[in-house]
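Dear Dr. L.,

I hope this message finds you well. Following up on our conversation about the binding site, I have prepared a predicted three-dimensional model of the protein together with ANZ. For your records, I am including the exact sequence and ligand specification that went into the calculation, followed by the structure tokens. Please feel free to forward this to your student if that is useful.
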Amino acid sequence: MERYNHKQIEKKWQDAWEEKGVFHASNDSEKPKFYPLVEFPYPSGHGLHVGHPRSYTALDIVARKRRLGGYNVLYPIGWDAFGLPTENYAIKHKIHPREVTKENIANFKRQLQSLGISFDWSREINTTDPNYYKWTQWIFIKLFEKGLAYKNKMPINWCNSCKVGLANEEVIQGKCERCGGEVVRKEKNQWMLKITEYADRLIDDLDTVNYIERVKIQQKNWIGRSYGMEIDFPVADTHLTVFTTRPDTIYGATYMVISPEHPIITEKASMIENLEEVMAYKEEAARKSEFERTEMSTEKTGVRIKGIPVINPLTKKEIPLFVSDYVLMTYGTGSIMAVPGHDTRDHEFAKAFDLPIVEVVSGGNVDEEAYTDIDSGTLVNSDIINGLDVKTAKEKISDYLESIGIGRKKVNYKLRDWVFSRQRYWGEPIPLVHCEKCGWVAIPESELPLTLPEVDSYEPTDDGESPLSKITDWVETTCPSCNGHAHRETDTMPQWAGSSWYFLRYADPSNNEQLASKEALDYWMPVDWYNGGMEHTTLHLLYSRFWHKVLYDVGAVSEVEPYSKRTSHGMILGENNEKMSKSRGNVVNPDDIVEEYGADTFRMYEMFIGDFEKSVPWSSQGIKGCRRFIERVWKLKDIIKAEDYYSKLVEVSVHKTIKKVTEDFETLKFNTAIAAMMSLVNEFYDAKGITKEDYKTLLILLNPVAPHVTEEIWSIMDFGGDLNEAKWPEHDESKLVEKTIEIPVQINGKVRGKIVVAADISKEDIIIMAKSDLIVKDMLDGKEIKKIIYVPGKILNIVV
Ligand code: ANZ
Ligand code: ZN
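The resulting structure of the complex is given below.
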């Protein structure tokens, strides 16, 4: 008997698959299509992390299962290779980022191939390849032509040490996501993308896709759509407009707050009696980040503005005006009507400044805390809306405020336009030039790709301009429109760009005329199943959905949404339950595991480790268990039997396992599918024999998880062709029912009868069955039962 030699087997089959192109998808097939997608990796210098294969193996299982089930499967992979870590490494080691990227990709690719994932390598893409980014630039030009890209001077998050502008999402708790350094605000001319114009569609179209619920919620929360009203409050000789989602609480608005950046401070400066105090507060607020102002639950601060009278338009009472940094200039109108009885932040502020709190919705104790419930309680102290519930009150007061001309219904969004410029080298050049006469002009499509010029130094400049700005021959150019003098945009695109449309390119990766042919896109899109990390379910998903909608609007794609289904996996933690990281020294290197136990064991372990959607700690014991199981499957060769009898013994279990594995593989329950196969193998050993057919079934079911060893056994056993050409088994519903067995019934130690029952009958049920058996019933007649002993599946003994 051959020993199980994973190294030899795995290499052999990986080469064979690649040589035959077994996993190459066809753009022209009679079969139904299936397009599973995993987030393509950023090829960092650290190599593959054990977290990557969790997603890749999961969808590989589904991909392999679907191929065996008769589908034409496209399971692609590529490289999201622009970005800061590579650039920073390049600067430090004085190697061109292109070279760094090449090396990292080679390493990642070697690692992925050693795992035997059934990627279609013929469609590999790389976002830094000019043939790829030509189309990223083309899409940018479409955005520009549609007026969805514009340049705007605006405060941006500026990291002093990376010397780069950051998108809001790259600022984590007021610090730079990349280097951890302090982030300050700085005015800079930036290219912006008008994602806000798509806010409604990005929310509403979520109804048409099958994403796990928490992902939908994240998308909605990020967009943050609020239905409310703008209401005008008389202020001095003019008025201030507030945005509120609770117009029903207007009678409880006992003061007003404006943001420190609100222009009225300058406009009415001459009226403000305590101007110095107000200006000092304004300066103090400017030093805080938005995060500090809103997310950190610090004491509420503020200053009362004296000299500017404000009237509540419904109570007609004069109310005080405050400036406080908990009101942001970037949301709504930058001023609010404060309702301390029913808004938590206002309540805290009112307590800190000893302001009156008026209850306008009954049901709570507003002296203690804000009563924010909107589903119960009725309006009080509210004149025309007294006695109504919140919903009705809202409608009535809105109509009233509109009728007297001081209120308008308004929808607000948390979502902001997308800061799309980076002052960096290693990104796609923005394909625009600026002409004195014509303004911003896109370069003609025939000049795409606009490639990155060679430079000696990629260092960001001290003035914050892109390193490209220092290459005069590149910057100086002519205007495509008037032929006059023009200069190129020197900012590059953010890393998000290339990943916002990559799933389209896989459909037709070497097309030079289009980002992908319409035909190929119509065939493959939408992605049937997209799996990736929870960390990407907000922005990457939103940005790529946005780009896809723009492409839909320009007629480049036919689907409204790019992904029909989205799932997410949990993280793999260190053995001690902490996040794996270099500094903690708990990083598991996939190479070591593959070397010692083999890719099949590694894959199986990654899927067996725990619930796919939860974070789980790594365990070296667990990996050994998976290796033992694979060896047991290997050794089943030794008990192969010709007699059908062995198949009868396990028939029900085989059909149950087919059913379970088939369902579990499609519903992210990889761990329970593997457990079911493990217990089936135990049954084969208990039966002391296995038939050829049952062995074949097991191998096909296990193939998506452990593709190499199953192919090898299949070929050793000469089961016909290659396993990857086999057909996925179907269970027979009629064979799922447990078999029945005959149980002897003893009365006082003597067998008096036999009853036929289901094999897994309970003690209670068998007693009922026995008592109703005619002979037994006769024997028991009139006697008192002292004891009943049931040896499951063997014998029932009644003592009278
Ligand atoms: C009065 C009120 C009474 C409010 C009440 C809430 C509850 P969302 O849902 O997030 O849109 N607000 C408006 N603009 C603001 C700004 N620039 N900075 C800080 N807060 C602002 O929140 C809308 C609510 O947030 C608005 O409704 C307003 O407070 C506050 F019982 O108005 B509300
Ligand atoms: Zn011009």
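In brief: The longest strand covers residues 149-159.

With kind regards,
A. P.
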